[in-house]
Amino acid sequence: MVAKLLIVLIFTLSSIILTNVIVVSLFYGINWAVGIVPNNLTGLELMQHSMKLASQAISAAGISLIPLYFGMLKKSVAITIVSSIIMVSFMSPPTDFSVLSVIIIPLVLSVVGFTIGLFCFKNIEKVDLV
After folding, report:
1. pLDDT class for 130, splitting at 50, 70, 90?
2. pTM, full prediction
3. Above 80 in pLDDT, residue 53?
4. DSSP character for 39?
5. Which of 34, 39, 79, 120 could bridge to 74 as Cys pair (CB 3.0-4.6 Å)?
6. Does residue 28 contact residue 41 with C-beta atoms inside 8 Å?
């Protein structure tokens, strides 16, 4: 169970960081060659972006554990997948406003996700015996 939780956490964390690094690098490279943005990227801006990226990646890793609760509750992989799709569609609607733009919501959801992961890890012995 620990391996499954770590795979979900590490995959979510690393994919968010890797894709963001690729996008920022491409933007910086294209801007350097073409000069779309008149100002240069400073170290302070890069540090601020890195801190924001780290907090968003950790928050998303915690949120990714929430569908695990529904899957363990119903003992179904399909429920886990459907609940994760519903969560993603709720978090990223096709409008201008996103639930994730309010800073407290991702923080609370990540704490809920990490708590669910801990709860599932502690109760796995009881669930396996039934």
Report:
1. very low
2. 0.72
3. yes
4. S
5. 79
6. yes
